[in-house]
Amino acid sequence: MFRIVSTVVFALSLLLAMPVLGDGHEATIADIVVASAEADMPEFSTLLAAVSAADVSILEALADADAELTVFAPTDAAFSALAEALGEEAFGEILSEEGTPRLNEILLYHVVGGVVGSADVVAALSGAEADDMGQVSIPVVTLSGQALAIAGAMAEDGLDLSAGITVAEANLVLDMVDIEASNGVIHVIDAVIVPELRTIADIVAELAGADEPEFTTLLTAVGAADPAVLALLADPAAAVTVFAPLDAAFAAVEGLGDIVADQALLTAVLQYHVFPGTVYSFQLGSLVDDMGQAALAMANGSEATIAVSDMGVMIDDANIVLELVDIEASNGVIHVIDAVIVPSA
What we know:
Residues 1-24 have low confidence and may be disordered. Strands 3, 4, 5, 6 and 7 form a five-stranded antiparallel sheet that branches. Strands 2-1-9-8 form a four-stranded mixed sheet. It has helices spanning 8-17, 29-37, 45-53, 56-63, 76-86, 88-94, 100-108, 118-126, 200-208, 216-224, 227-234, 247-251, 256-261, 263-271, 281-284, and strands at residues 69-74, 111-113, 135-141, 147-155, 158-159, 166-167, 170-171, 179-181, 184-189, 240-245, 274-276, 293-297, 303-309, 312-315, 318-319, 327-329, 332-337. The chain folds into two domains: 8-189, Roll (FAS1 domain), CATH 2.30.180; 200-337, FAS1 domain, CATH 2.30.180.10. It is α+β, with helices and mostly antiparallel strands. 38% of the residues are buried. A hairpin with a 2-residue loop joins strand 4 (147-155) and strand 5. The protein starts with 7 loop residues before the first helix and ends in an 8-residue tail after the last strand.
């Protein structure tokens, strides 16, 4: 396992600096971050500044003795590298009051609900199916609502720890894992991981305007529908799953011009492609029954049928394009489909 005993000077400095709580319990995650930031050899000082600048609910969660959390904590050097990459002005804006929504998303992207120890990570990766390059990964949904991939490499005798473990774009610092707190565990990473900050509306608009455009008809349809449709897709606080038809899918619809001209009908059709809630492709299997099917209550009030089989995944009569699933947005996820689905009503 990679609970490397040499959490050495770093862990020792945490233990020496850690406050003694009156009730005898060990420190919370918030206590550990504060103690480390104020130690003789400080670490997590920028993380503490970021948490202090974010919404107060984040600090409250890390300080909640009854919580069960796993935090992937970037080092001060990791934050310095991000500041250099973005530029000091842009980095400062994230820590400012105006940047709080973005900062909240970034910080919550580093937190997973539940206590996930290093042994749990190794076991999950060891049981995952390797790709052609011998790489294994497991998806984990963070408190931001977005998922990240924890990945490693397989050797002949099992998981190759010498190749390292990655958490999104960061490396897990293998001698700084399993820092235990009363309300969870901290694993140190060497980079700040940044979630997708664009909304679904942003992504659709950008892809429609790309050199090889896609979703141009979807963008036109959203613009012609009730403004509430666009408002939902552009709402950074929303959490929705959009089954997005390709341009070719719209082109195959007979009488498309008449549908677009009828705002009420068009709105109902578009809302039928939206599920209120974020569902990733790896979560679909848990929704279906023994027959491999599930009914999803879509945003227009009608139910669509998800069917999972060895042939792939369908929603009603449309195939979910497996190469184009889990397009993440700050307010949900997009799965591309090859046909327009229409509510029976």
